[in-house]
Design a protein that fits this description.
- It is a single chain.
- It is globular, with a radius of gyration of 29 Å.
- Strands 10-14-15-22-19-18-16-17 form an 8-stranded mixed β-sheet, with helices on both faces. A 5-stranded mixed β-sheet has the order 24-23-25-26-27, sandwiched between helices. It has a 4-stranded antiparallel β-sheet with strand order 1-2-7-6.
- The protein has 569 residues and is an alpha+beta fold.
- The protein folds into 3 domains: 175 residues, Threonyl-trna Synthetase, Chain A, domain 2 (Threonyl-tRNA Synthetase, Chain A, domain 2, 2-Layer Sandwich); 227 residues, 2-Layer Sandwich (BirA Bifunctional Protein, domain 2); 90 residues, Anticodon-binding domain (Rossmann fold).
- The two termini are 44 Å apart.
- The N terminus is likely disordered.
- It is built from 18 helices and 27 strands.
Length: 569
């Protein structure tokens, strides 16, 4: 960890003590538990006599600022456990922590007359903590266990300078303005309803975007010899037990009984694809066999983690299962990595990182199979000159995988696609192919999802582009505006011509002045506006106005059609 990271952690940890100090002065009966630094800021979990409310935050903030002004030195010492037990005799949470700390002494942090149990790692004094902001009050549990005492958590952020704090607040405002849930409502793309919590409803414009995403991926897959299939949404319990999903995903699956037989709605597409592979004997000449599927999956996520399109209970995966010979494995992974780079560049996403998730605690198969699978992924990444990290123990139960991590225009990282090697399902389902020598051999499966989830990827790019989707992807690509009604016949003729060629176009039929029509089109985030006045109607041209305000006057229709073709999918 860099010195800067260490300093920031010390600042955040010290800010947590500052918060606890202020609360203990204002609400002396509050029991303090723990207050760590986090990757985003800091928090402190507490048990107040009376629950905190949002309106309490300004009062706590003011007291924290008073303590900052007093500039108490932050000191840390080791004290005997017996002394610590006396200091915290009225706090059962601290007493529990004291007993679990190894050795005969514990750390004690002090500032002024405030003290707290602590392992250390602070800045010099409270005077350096003035650039903070308390953000929220939320519920938590002692030791993050729902069976333990419910607590309240106060969270905040802190920075070394006021400029950093102001930059953070500006960024937070930007995140709020361009939150995909907010944009989805503004642009009439999708909605959520109490009648189906966690299940997104796509409106015509939103469905258009989903269709274009699917069309783009189909085009990319067709160029790489994928064949598309479709498998049922509901399949027998027996299948999910055989695949292992029942054991590992049971709590997140939906079930139904039909004719006294138990069925499950699929949480993923793999078993259905495997059944297609098994419909007849396969030859080495067919391999690699690449079966793609845009499968609609369901998972019972807890209501507390649902978040717009980012975390839903029903989603569509751009799934593919590649059945290949072991010697083809590395080449196929390299091909997928190339597709990943090509796809992400289409969305102006160029900061791309990879991570290899290795064997978890619960897994299927032998250690040697895991080692071979992990090596194939590692070798492919190294040959593609891709930078990667290793996430130890974070693989799926049936194989290691590559995770694709991107950074958007607002500096946030997102995990999107996955590439997973699977030696185990071929064994579970006794899959085979006939080799050139006439013997049977087991294929390897590569599970691939480049978007990951269409819904989640839609949310990511909607925020990445801040609602201004590129021409090829926008639900409405062009809006035709007229200066007066006299130009309506020419505008209508142009509208029908563009419509016939597949352009997603609208004609403004309102009686608004041109400035009002432009404002509406800008609010709808329409990429191109075609403005037609008297001069354009007479010369059979258009003025092209882009969403950013730039204009191209007197564009001939022939050049317009060429420009549209160049900007389309």
């Amino acid at each position: 960890m860099s010195n800067q990271s260490n300093d920031l952690n010390a600042l955040r940890h010290s800010a947590a003590h500052l918060l606890a100090h202020a609360v203990s002065e204002i609400y002396p009966t509050t029991l303090l538990t723990i207050g760590p630094a986090t990757p985003e800021g800091f928090f402190y979990d507490m048990l107040p006599e009376k629950n905190f409310k949002e309106e309490d935050l300004p009062l706590i903030t003011a007291r924290m600022q008073e303590i900052v002004t007093k500039n108490y030195p932050l000191e840390h010492t080791q004290i005997p456990k017996e002394t610590a037990r006396k200091l915290f005799a009225k706090n059962p949470f601290k007493l529990e922590l004291i007993e679990q700390i190894p050795g005969d002494t514990v750390g004690l942090a002090t500032q002024g007359d405030f003290y707290d149990l602590c392992r250390g790692g602070h800045i010099a004094s409270t005077g350096l903590l003035g650039h903070f902001k308390l953000q929220s009050i939320s519920g938590s549990y002692w030791r993050a266990d729902r069976n333990n005492q419910p607590l309240q958590r106060i969270s905040g952020v802190v920075f070394f300078t006021q400029q950093e704090l102001e930059a953070y607040e500006k960024h937070q405002l930007e995140l709020h303005l361009y939150d995909h849930r907010r944009l989805g409502k503004q642009l009439d793309l999708f909605s959520f309803h109490d009648e189906g919590v966690g299940f997104p409803f796509f409106h015509p414009k939103g469905k258009t975007v989903i269709n274009v995403l699917t069309a783009y991926m189909r085009k990319l897959q067709e160029k790489n010899d994928y064949q598309e299939i479709s498998t049922p949404t509901m399949l027998s319990d027996e299948l999910w037990r055989k695949s292992g999903h029942y054991e590992f995903y049971h709590d997140k699956m939906y079930f139904s009984v039909i004719d006294e037989k138990s069925y499950a709605i699929k949480p993923m597409n793999c078993p259905g694809s495997i059944l297609v592979y098994k419909t007849r004997p396969r030859s080495y000449r067919e391999l690699p066999l690449k079966l793609s599927e845009y499968g609609h999956c369901h998972r019972h996520e807890l209501s507390g983690v649902l978040h717009g399109l980012m975390r839903v209970r029903a989603f569509t995966q751009d799934d593919a299962h590649i059945y290949c010979a072991p010697e083809q494995l590395e080449h196929e992974i390299l091909t997928i990595i190339t597709m990943v780079f090509k796809m992400l560049s289409k969305f102006d996403l160029h900061d791309i990182r990879f991570a290899i998730s290795t064997r978890p605690e619960k897994y299927m198969g032998s250690d040697i199979l895991w080692e071979n699978a992990t090596k194939a992924l590692t070798d492919a990444l190294e040959k593609s000159n891709a930078q990667y990290t290793v996430k130890a123990g974070e693989g799926a139960f049936y194989g290691p995988k590559i995770e694709v991590v991107i950074q958007d225009s607002m500096g946030r990282s997102w995990q999107c696609g996955t590439i997973q090697v699977d030696f185990f399902q071929p064994q579970n389902f006794d899959l085979s192919y006939v080799t050139a020598q006439g013997t049977k051999q087991r294929p390897v499966i590569i599970h691939q999802a480049i978007f990951g989830s269409l819904e989640r990827f839609f949310a990511i790019i909607l925020e990445h582009y801040k609602g201004n989707l590129p021409f090829w992807l926008a639900p409405v690509q062009i809006k035709i505006l007229t200066v007066t009604d006299a130009q309506k016949p020419y505008a209508t003729q142009l509208y029908h011509t563009l419509k016939k060629t597949g352009v997603r176009v609208e004609l403004d039929s309102s009686s608004d002045p041109l400035s009002g029509q432009i404002k509406t089109a800008q609010q709808d985030r329409i990429p191109w506006m075609l403005i037609i006045g008297k001069k354009e109607a007479e010369s059979q041209t258009v003025t092209v106005r882009y969403h950013d305000g730039k204009q191209e006057p007197a564009v001939l229709l022939e050049n317009l059609y060429k420009k549209i073709q160049e900007s389309s999918l």
